[in-house]
Specification:
Layout lengths: L19 H8 L13 E5 L11 H13 L7 E9 L9 E10 L3 E10 L2 E11 L24 H5 L5 H9 L2 E5 L15 E8 L7 H11 L6 H4 L12 E4 L1 E6 L9 E11 L2 E10 L4 E12 L4
Antiparallel strand pairs: 1-3, 2-5, 2-9, 3-4, 4-5, 6-7, 7-10, 8-12, 9-12, 10-11, 11-12
Pfam families: 4HBT_3, Acyl_CoA_thio
Protein name: Acyl-CoA thioesterase 2
Family: Belongs to the C/M/P thioester hydrolase family.
Length: 306
């Protein structure tokens, strides 16, 4: 496992820093709601506080996946997930997860998870799990000539000096180290106008060896930066005045084993945008070129009319 540099105890303004990896593991450690059950198996998870109080989409995706995993035989790994974001979640409140067992076959299991707040679903997801099996193998090759992650600035280096709650949260509280291959879109859009984006990412600290945790954590991280491939060709950055962006759905396929505490290259592209919606697709590679996962997401992108 690659070494992880320990985070400083305080940020540039002297504020105590959190342990983002410990926070991530706490989010993924769902409780069983004291055995409560309806026609669903019930689990409860906490939320990570966010500027603006909206739950991060990757968090509720990962937690919904963990809830489904709790009802599936350990030998069966998740291989695909399809979810719809139905409502904005409140990061000040816990989330209840209801899991329905749709099917348990000889090789595959299917589960439906609803994430609830205030008695209504904020996310609806179906995931499929498979027993290990052999078969044909091929993959798209990883792009060549990508700079090493060590040569790229961290988000903390780019945003750490800004005294703004969103900048502080992105710089010091995210559980993943995100390093843009292209110029980042945090405050400006000065790079290529191609509908493409790429980042290196890994967890801030080492993770336990449980492969299920790594797959769930990858779902969490897969919601980072994906919609930036939609923003790039239009000269938009995250601080564009009046812009409104929201994830509408999220699909993910796991192809091979993965560790999120080792560097992963997340290559993203947008084939289309229209009707205030954009489609983004992503491929996630290990540093030595193995394609470990593919992702697709449609997002709402509204900008003020001239």
């Amino acid at each position: 496992m690659a070494d992880h540099a320990p985070a400083a105890d305080h940020d540039a303004a002297g504020r105590p820093r959190k342990d983002p990896t410990a926070d991530l593991l706490a989010l993924l450690d769902l409780t069983s709601a004291d055995g409560a059950q309806t026609d669903e198996e019930i689990f409860v998870g906490s939320s990570s506080r966010q500027p603006g109080r909206r739950v991060f989409g990757g968090q509720v995706l990962a937690q919904s996946l963990v809830a489904a995993m709790r009802t599936v035989e350990p030998s069966r790994d998740v291989h695909s997930m399809h979810g719809y974001f139905l409502r904005a979640g409140d990061a000040e409140k816990p989330i209840t997860f209801g899991v329905q067992r749709l099917r348990d076959g000889r090789s595959f299991s299917a589960r439906r998870t609803h994430a609830y707040q205030n008695g209504v679903p904020i996310l609806s997801m179906i995931a499929s799990f498979q027993e290990p099996d052999d078969g044909i193998t091929h993959q798209d090759a990883m792009p060549q000539g990508v700079p090493d992650p060590e040569s790229l600035p961290t988000t903390a280096e780019l945003l750490g000096a800004f005294d703004h709650p969103v900048a502080r949260a992105w710089a010091f509280e995210r559980p993943f180290d995100i390093r843009h291959v292209d110029s980042p879109l945090y405050t400006s859009n000065t790079g290529s106008r191609e509908p493409r984006n790429a980042v290196w990412m890994r967890s801030i600290g080492p993770m336990p060896d449980d492969p299920r945790l790594h797959r769930a954590a990858l779902a969490y991280a897969s919601d980072y930066t994906l919609l930036e491939s939609i923003l790039r060709p239009h000269g938009l950055s995250w601080i564009q005045p009046g812009m409104s962006v929201a994830s509408l759905d999220h699909a993910m396929w796991w192809h091979r084993p993965v560790r999120v505490d080792q560097w992963l290259l997340y290559v993203q592209s947008s084939p289309s945008a229209s009707g205030a919606r954009g489609l983004a697709a992503g491929r996630i590679y290990t540093r030595d070129g193995e394609l470990v996962a593919s992702v697709a997401q449609e997002g709402m992108v509204r900008v003020p009319r001239s």
